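ERR on first pass: missing label on line 2. Operator R.T. fixed the label and resubmitted. Corrected input:
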Amino acid sequence: MPKVAVVQYPGSNCDLDALEVLQKIVKTRTDLVWHRDLKKDEYDGYVLPGGFSYGDYLRAGAIAATSPSLKTIREAAEKNKPVLGICNGFQILVEAGLLPGAVLRNTGLRFVCKWTRLRVENNKTAFTSLAKKGQTLNIPIAHNEGRYYLDKDGLAQLERNQQIVLRYVDENNQPSEEANPNGSLDNIAGICNPQGNVMGLMPHPERSSIPTFSPNNKAEGRLIFDSMIRTMGAR
Amino acid sequence: MSPGSNYTVEVIVENKPLARDPEGETIHRNLILKGGYAQVTKVRAGKLLRMSVDAASREDARQLVRNLCDELRIYNPAAHVCQVRLVD
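pass 2 clean. output:
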């Protein structure tokens, strides 16, 4: 049975939520691992949770990105194991160079905490394989720095490689300006590496994996974890 | 060892010109223009790090800080520009 590590950094605060969902809802063997203790690639998959690692000092994720744990995670990624960065975890993956671009302060200059509607743009990743292309998922966001940014050439390359996995969309499933909560380039909510085994997203699937916690009484964030576990089992 | 001394070096990190800077825009629009300073045509907000550096010369101090900014990713080259300057 595959085993997952939720990697804890000083200032992580969604680590226990991710752990709980993986252990009790998805029912997968999962350890909470302090980042300094992650010296060897002993797991089948990794989750970098949300929070405010190192107080978001310098830039969100910038200091955690220098943690030796990233060496292990990079090795795992090169072996095609799934690596999922949620919110601050996404920022860490970007700052560590495992994913391209930057995650900047929201254009509204406010911390935004709300439910968002996401459209699955690519279902050939380790985290969306159970979704249909174009399917929408309701998953909440909670961040101050979530504005995904990349230069024009970089964006064209992302598009070409189908690395845009999730976009914020409105009720008509269109990536409109109104649906964009933070000013992200092209309404981007989540991206992956060209291989599709490393994904970062600003929304929190661990907060929408139990029906009771969701306004629509569904657990649409679970699909991300279920897909990840299925990918690990199939490896 | 050469006499050397301690130099002050400042690092300024700001968004690339094409990456919007809502903080600078807000300061400009809601404070500066509203306050009657129409001569100010643009504001960019950024981050300043002031470092005290032991080095053999001014140029060594500047170069050391430039290197550390690039090596330790004090800025994210995807979105930021980083300026290093000596303070007298």
